[in-house]
Fold this sequence. Notes:
Oligomer: single chain
Bound molecules: flavin-adenine dinucleotide
Number of strands: 22
Amino acid sequence: MTPIASIEQLAESYDLVIVGAGPAGLSAAARAAELGLSVLLADENPAPGGQIYRAVTTTPVRNRAILGDDYWRGADIVGRFERSQATYAPRCTVWSIGPDETAPGTFELGLSLDGKARIISARQVILATGAQERPFPIPGWTLPGVMTAGAAQIALKSAGAIPSGRTVIAGCGPLLYLLAGQLAAAGCQIAAVLDTTQKGNWSKALGAIPDFLRSPYFAKGLKLMLAARRKLRFVAGVTSLTATGGGKLATVQFEQNGRTGTIACDTLLLHQGVIPSVNFSNAAGCAHDFDAEQHAWVPRVDAWFASTVPGIAIAGDGAGIGGAESAALRGEIAAFGAASRLGKLNEAERDRQAGPVRAELEKKLRGRRFLDLLYKPAPQFLAPPKDETIVCRCEEVTAGQIRDAAKRLGVTGPNQMKAFLRCGMGPCQGRLCGPTVVELIAETRGATPAETGYYRLRPPIKPVTLAELAALPQTEASVTAVVR
Ligand SMILES: Cc1cc2nc3c(=O)[nH]c(=O)nc-3n(C[C@H](O)[C@@H](O)[C@H](O)COP(=O)(O)OP(=O)(O)OC[C@H]3O[C@@H](n4cnc5c(N)ncnc54)[C@H](O)[C@@H]3O)c2cc1C
């Protein structure tokens, strides 16, 4: 692997550009380089690993028991990538993608590193941009002291930092128990785990139990859940949450079985599962569908993870939540697909080499459905019932304003809602409000999220400064377009 320290070191073009150095991107890059492609792997973080293996080669956390065996397994994936011939651009944000009009069939990508931007071209692109935590809008979630559980995990992995004072962790999903365990092992004072898993979900997930019992998730999940229940104050069946405080978080109030409880705390960590991070694939023009079981928008991909835009594939959790091990395998399969489209592998060879990877992927995906069904968030945590709850944090738009616009003004979808209320127009580009805005419109209009649609996004996908844009090399045509 050849690391890039400055934007000038990038080549003009690559056979394959991969965005995201999590398990999917790392495996795709290693495999594609092994197949003879010129590969650039770009990631905004300073070290490879993505979310699960974040900072696995640089973390200051030395006690291996804190982050657990699954985390340290990432060193092997990073090691294989490091031994490959791929080029690696850390701290490099990819903010745009579009057709390269000078070379039909190829792509133009906008990247920034150290405050400098560059446009490069790629014959194929793999988006391995992973997952994000599902928004969890409750009253008071914008108070200082409230953050996502994933953000706390990022601080732990990358800096060895844990919240000080009393911490409450609230929400649902397997990662909730993992995070509670990791933070407790690191010395965090956990006042309570408030579990919002809906009791009724157990019966809905029943049919998926046989596969789950034969999956690797069963033993792991049970161990994490039992540890959280045994070692920490665990409150199950929580149906309402409110963070309160004047200027900063002071308490979390919750309801359980019709009773109200209050816990004084300094930090509240919220988490209700992860959903594919679709901003990039959306801005690239790839088609998406609403997956009712994952309750999330998912890009439409074929058996090689090729999207509906020829030349762009989407691998890993960005193409539907499947977990870290599946992400790595999906990255490999996407690399076989890209190599074949570039003529480096014929179809028979592609199929032969990808066969065992595909079989392994099938095993790793076994049991996921049970998790999707069991941990589907309760409706009140998807569409906040209290009108004053802020939904779009960037533009401070509330649930009440969105309901009102959908009902009184007849706003039918999130794009129209943007025009009326500016929700989704801030720096996060709707990442933190999009799913909730869709839920609220759907609920108000008696429609499904699938019928309601999602924001239509445009590059830049990530914030980029005017100075970076202005410093981009200009073509004669672009100069004459604005100079008179
Ligand atoms: C906060 C969080 C914590 C998680 N922790 C765990 C865990 O501890 N254990 C577990 O089993 N699962 C965890 N998951 C689930 C998890 O995402 C894994 O299943 C796995 O990391 C998915 O791998 P991936 O390669 O698809 O994407 P990721 O590992 O998410 O990697 C995607 C990478 O792409 C980068 N990226 C995205 N957009 C751009 C861009 N425009 N330009 C440059 N770089 C970009 C991201 O910064 C990231 O490094 C976590 C998820 C989240 C959201």
